[in-house]
Amino acid sequence: xxxxxxxxxxxxxxxxxxxxxxxxxxxxxxxxxxxxxxxxxxxxxxxxxxxxxxxxxxxxxxxxxxxxxxxxxxxxxxxxxxxxxxxxxxxxxxxxxxxxxxxxxxxxxxxxxxxxxxxxxxxxxxxxxxxxxxxxxxxxxxxxxxxxxxxxxxxxxxxxxxxxxxxxxxxxxxxxxxxxxxxxxxxxxxxxxxxxxxxxxxxxxxxxxxxxxxxxxxxxxxxxxxxxxxxxxxxxxxxxxxxxxxxxxxxxxxxxxxxxxxxxxxxxxxxxxxxxxxxxxxxxxxxxxxxxxxxxxxxxxxxxxxxxxxxxxxxxxxxxxxxxxxxxxxxxxxxxxxxxxxxxxxxxxxxxxxxxxxxxxxxxxxxxxxxxxxxxxxxxxxxxxxxxxxxxxxxxxxxxxxxxxxxxxxxxxxxxxxxxxxxxxxxxxxxxxxxxxxxxxxxx
Length: 444
Known about the structure:
Layout: H1 2-45, H2 49-62, H3 69-83, H4 87-94, H5 97-101, H6 104-149, H7 167-177, H8 181-197, H9 202-218, H10 225-240, H11 243-256, H12 263-274, H13 281-295, H14 299-312, H15 317-333, H16 337-350, H17 355-370, H18 374-387, H19 394-407, H20 411-424, H21 431-442
Helix pairs in contact: 1-2, 1-6, 2-3, 6-7, 6-8, 7-8, 8-9, 9-10, 10-11, 11-12, 13-14, 13-15, 14-15, 15-16, 16-17, 17-18, 18-19, 19-20, 20-21
């Protein structure tokens, strides 16, 4: 409806513009014709019949239906009789460039050209205006997308969209622009919003999958393609639970966008899927639901599902990852550091041979350090160093042992540990710090 009204308004404005142009030309012809009439009348009174004929003819040519036209014709006839010439002869002899330029045909042609120029200017500047508005709208869509991500509820109960949260603006955008990559983008964003309100709705999920696929197929060079590809993988991973499709989408990310900021996430999820064959898809679905709740900051719900996964599928690798996630939630999200130590210790005790056990032991040291229990932190870090000598972040453990030793005023141990970092880990980021600390401790 809004689009139709805009079109009607433009047509009315165009018609008014054409009318004003022709009305203005008519008024101008009448004004100039009147000037020639006055000039011809004066010339007749002065006895300059030749000039009177020329000016009176021009006045009639410009404004043949004016209120002084009859008088002009009479004066013209009188001048021609006195001059001894016919009207036709006079016109043939005195037709000038001005006569030609002020003829009705030429003025009509000029009016048509002016109208065409106006239409061309309107189309040109209108296109520029649409491009500018398009850019502004895309920028606005990106700000509204944040509201979709946090799943703001509609203001009117039972509706999936509302102008308050910006989703209605997406629909207005689609109605206005009809066809462009941004229309498909807006379609995707509306579907994302609706799915945020109803995350379990499989029909919405499948529709959004189609929208993503349509965008990817239609605009392979779009600057938004990387983000859409990542969203497609997430949709298949979190909502549809079609892990084969999710893996395929994430692999496209690896191939086409190796520098993407989402590349590590894509790699981790590919590994997760490949480490859990089809027979493990049930616990994988549970793990994915728990991770989604974690991302939505619903930590209690996430913990509940992780625990159910461990209880039902305790011998799978996902159970170990779930246990590690539980400990991470207590450590970093709910700030229950003592409880985090207990959860990390379960991994060490139950899954001591897994790669997660080493990470858990290191994290126990981190927890004690956070609690400012330097002695317990040193014990945990040293257990980590002794039991997992091939770990990637061994130099970090040595550094924190030295740092905690300084806190306990055990400078001898701190010096020895700093020197070991310099000797055994020459490429470590802690080498420069260790050298600085050795210099400072040596002066004491």
